[in-house]
């Protein structure tokens, strides 16, 4: 029992060192940028960093789930671009100044993302094609579709309700909080709750650890991979 306790403590200390090391790297970059870039610690700069990082972190949550199953998704960035293009075109079609247009645009973006994920999941899960090959091909396909939809040009969205979510911010006593950071908090909380409290979330670890053993224990491995994408 004592040996087990020592092993657990040793493992915890390793994990703590890992997080401390990552924190030290981030701090070192902040110090470097503050020296090399004038006024780096301005409120505007920090706000922009939070806003841009929030989008990347939201994408990384989905990528994390895929990696847990032993897969990879190289098409996530191109899928985001295609979803954004679909949202912009939908908003312009439904109503550029209406809340309905914003809602339709968000629904279109989610639908496109879900459709691409479903295709990736079916090919990787049920047909058991290499996730690397599938998502690499999907990356090329979605990039081409984005170019076709946008004609290679920028689409400006002037819908206030839509821009409120992506570009708006709260001023809390001089501290600026981008609206998209709230979306990040909701996504992270939902992902953690789902992974820790639902069997589907817990099964991800089993599938990623050993698909054969997971299948032998009754886990629907193919469906698990499909739903993750």
UniProtKB/TrEMBL annotation:
GO terms for molecular function: transmembrane transporter activity. It holds the Pfam family BPD_transp_2. It is found in: Cell membrane. The chain crosses the membrane at residues 20-37, 49-68, 100-123, 170-194. One of its GO terms (cellular component) is plasma membrane. It is a multi-pass membrane protein. The keyword Zinc-finger does not apply. The keyword NAD does not apply. Keywords: Cell membrane, Membrane, Transmembrane, Transmembrane helix. Its main location: membrane. This is Ribose transport system permease protein rbsC. It comes from Blautia hydrogenotrophica (strain DSM 10507 / JCM 14656 / S5a33) (Ruminococcus hydrogenotrophicus).
């Amino acid at each position: 029992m004592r040996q087990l306790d020592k092993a657990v403590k040793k493992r915890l200390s390793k994990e703590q060192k890992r997080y401390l090391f990552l924190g030290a790297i981030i701090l070192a970059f902040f110090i470097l940028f503050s020296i090399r870039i004038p006024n780096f610690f301005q409120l505007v700069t920090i706000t922009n960093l939070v806003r841009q990082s929030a989008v990347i972190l939201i994408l990384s949550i989905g990528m994390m789930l895929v990696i847990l199953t032993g897969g990879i998704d190289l098409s996530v960035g191109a899928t985001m671009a295609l979803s954004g293009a679909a949202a912009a075109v939908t908003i312009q079609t439904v109503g550029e100044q209406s809340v309905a247009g914003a809602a339709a645009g968000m629904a279109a973006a989610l639908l496109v993302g879900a459709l691409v994920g479903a295709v990736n999941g079916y090919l990787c899960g049920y047909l058991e094609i290499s996730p690397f090959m599938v998502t690499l091909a999907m990356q090329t396909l979605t990039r081409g579709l984005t170019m076709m939809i946008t004609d290679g040009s920028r689409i400006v969205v002037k819908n206030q309700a839509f821009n409120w979510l992506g570009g708006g911010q709260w001023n809390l006593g001089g501290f600026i909080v981008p609206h998209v950071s709230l979306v990040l908090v909701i996504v992270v909380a939902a992902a953690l709750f789902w992974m820790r409290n639902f069997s589907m979330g817990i099964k991800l670890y089993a599938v990623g650890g050993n698909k054969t053993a997971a299948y032998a224990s009754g886990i629907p491995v193919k469906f698990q991979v499909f739903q993750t994408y």
